[in-house]
Specification:
The strands form 2 sheets. This protein has a 3-stranded antiparallel sheet, with no helix packed on it. Strands 1-2 form a two-stranded antiparallel ribbon. It is globular. With 437 residues, the chain is mostly helical. The protein has one domain. The protein is 63% helix and 3% strand. Strand 3 (421-422) and strand 4 (427-429) form a beta hairpin.
């Protein structure tokens, strides 16, 4: 196992160096040298610039519509992030935001390590270093930084929310959760993890000795959602929320994208049921009613399973379930872009620390290593896809463009196997073995 750990560290380090160099050289250096490189941040920047001139023009993008792409898709509150950046030059704003995103990924790692230390077992110095190297090798991290995307910031908010929720600091937890919500609204699904703190019948309620009344916790979360938009309404007009939630968002949720970059169940079904022709194509298609109903039912089923697990389980089961649910978010989202898979970073770190500390191989070790290797496979260029699409059967492309779904599910299975909670005997699996709490 010692040789295995050394090889793992070397591979992760090499992947981190190559990935970082590619992104910095081909995007950051390229943009600073006045090359024309498209990034998703461009949509945020232009929306911020429009907002600074006339807030009512924020969602009116000359380049496209919700049905064709290239639009600014986030709630009005997010202008607090993007309007000030739009006062800078584009390249400078892109660099600042990309660096913030990268920092957010290491904050996620720090919180995972803190949670591991407090609720499982304290990682060694070598394991801590390995966790940060692993973060730097995680492809979704660089995808997010490359495009100046918001997902690392949202995932960071989710982890901070979980940390303060476990500490029963509901005010901070609620505020941070909704700071993420106003960037990506589906992060509100994490609110399900508040439920065990509301009802005395849950196992967690007893184990954590919750003292705050349920009505007070609910009130705190309602205020955290409602008050910030009202407070900043002098800057972000409230009428924008009406337009966003009643007009723009329904149109956006009515379509999905056929691109192989969309690694979600919606994307897979859309590619399988449409004449794709070119897997590199950037084409939006309507979401069929049966697909939308099926997706909603599947999402509700996942939430139901999550609620069942955290209702009966221990603190450790609560944590591992939260990580698994975060990893599933890109899969059940309408747009499971590659950078959205940064939500899987906590479960990857949690499982790989267990793998790194193990003295023997198991099938869960194999699951985790295969999953990690799949996360290390980058997207080939559009030119390569176009030149080879006639050489391989569509099945292989469908499989390749589902590789991070497969990786996430492998990590979820490994986590479930590694960290089974034996509530009957009050024994729980930790990073280094089984402990009693």
């Amino acid at each position: 196992m010692k040789i295995f750990r050394i090889v793992l560290v070397i591979l992760a380090t090499l992947v981190a160096i190559v990935s970082g160099w590619y992104v910095v050289k081909n995007y950051h250096f390229s943009l600073w040298s006045s090359s024309n490189r498209y990034t998703d941040f461009e949509a945020y920047y232009k929306a911020g610039a429009r907002f600074n001139i006339n807030p009512d023009s924020t969602y009116f993008t000359p380049e496209g519509t919700p049905e064709t792409g290239r639009t600014y898709n986030y709630p009005p509150f997010a202008m607090l992030y993007f309007a000030p950046l739009a006062k800078l030059g584009y390249v400078g704003a892109y660099s600042v935001f990309s660096i913030l995103s990268l920092v957010a990924s290491f904050v996620i790692t720090y919180i995972v390590l803190r949670i591991m230390k407090e609720y499982f077992i304290s990682p060694s110095r070598v394991q801590t270093i390995f966790a940060y190297i692993l973060t730097a090798s995680f492809a979704p991290v660089w995808q997010d930084m490359k495009h100046g995307q918001v997902n690392e910031l949202v995932a960071m908010c989710a982890m901070i929310f979980l940390w303060f929720l476990l500490k029963q600091k509901y005010g901070i937890a609620a505020f941070v959760l909704f700071m993420g919500f106003w960037l990506k609204i589906y992060s509100a699904m994490l609110g399900a993890f508040v439920l065990p703190f509301l009802f005395a019948g849950s196992a967690l309620y007893t184990r954590l000795k919750v003292k705050t009344p349920a009505w007070k916790i609910i009130l705190i979360f309602i205020l955290a959602l409602v008050v910030p938009p009202i407070v900043v309404s002098v800057f972000v007009p409230l009428n924008l929320y009406g337009f966003y939630f009643t007009d723009f968002l329904p149109r956006l949720s009515g379509v999905t994208n056929l691109s192989g970059l969309n690694q979600s169940l919606y994307g897979i079904v859309a590619r399988a049921t449409n004449d794709v022709g070119n897997f590199a194509s950037w084409k939006f298609v309507p979401v069929a009613p049966w697909m939308k109903i099926g997706g909603m039912l599947f999402t509700l089923s996942v939430l139901g399973i999550v609620c069942k697990q955290i209702w009966r389980g221990s603190v450790r089961k609560f944590i591992v379930t939260a990580y698994i649910f975060m990893a599933v978010i890109p899969i059940i989202s309408q747009y499971g872009w590659e950078y959205v898979y940064v939500f899987g970073l906590p479960i990857v770190l949690h499982v790989m620390l267990k793998v790194f500390s193990d003295q023997t191989f198991s099938r869960y070790t194999v699951f985790a290593v295969i999953g990690l290797l799949l996360f290390w496979i980058p997207k080939p260029s559009d030119g390569f896809i176009e030149s080879t699409v006639v050489s391989f059967k569509p099945f292989f492309y469908h499989l390749f463009f589902a590789r991070w779904i497969i990786a996430s599910l492998l990590f979820c299975m490994a986590a479930y196997g590694y960290f089974k909670i034996k509530d009957k005997y009050n024994g729980e699996t930790s990073l280094g073995g089984t402990v009693t709490s």
